[in-house]
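In the current project phase, our protein records have gained a structure token line. A sample record follows, to show the layout:
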Amino acid sequence: MGYYDLTPDARKKVFAEMEMHIREAYRSHEMDDMLQYFSDNDTYIRKNSALITGRLYREQEYRENIFACLNNLLKHENSKVRQTAVNCLGEIGKTDASVLDVLGTILSDPHHSVRNAVIGALKQMGEKNPAPTLAFASEHIHHSDPLVRREMVHGIEMRGRMHPEEVLPILRELEFEEDKVVQAMVVHVIGQISYKKGCLEKVLGALEGFRNQELVKKALAEIVNTHKSYQKFAEKSPAEAEKLICERFGTGVLE
């Protein structure tokens, strides 16, 4: 039975037990109970482990122990354990950007779930602790590994949804990106940061300064598709978005 198959009262009891066990693990460095949670097949048990770790870190009592334990767990053979450890760093990083030094060492982890956890950590940090997170992304945006470049682009998406002007200069660094997967992620993120209130005008203004017209055309089409996908949440209708694009880039740009 999964965590969310339980009743609310039962979930509260499980969470309290997890918090007690994880607290004791960080205090004593006895990791058996924590490894059970960090490797659990239930995503929500692993997510709770990260939430509890972030909460304990803010209490300050076990900070050194927490970092020591997480550094060990990041080397664990089980990818779920490493993934959960990265999620813990994302929770900590909402208030303490020093975790970026650790994240930088695992950007090329061999397992996709761990790399995706890095993306998730950057997304969380970008919302709550944007300046160092965006600086980190800028530092790694030209990494030799295209997977890392893709991670950086995806990782700044959430910050860009509310503050596109902060991430657009980083995206422009990759306007001539040759790797198709990275290029597709750049286009995707441009679409994702365009639909909320006041964002479309900022995105279009930035795209007017791009030199790669092929990329611009793909991005404009993606913006329209995003407005169609998020019609209930977008500030403008797809038709309004198309009209604004054609006014600024010409009527044939979306053909």
Remarks:
- Residues 8-28 form the longest helix (21 residues).
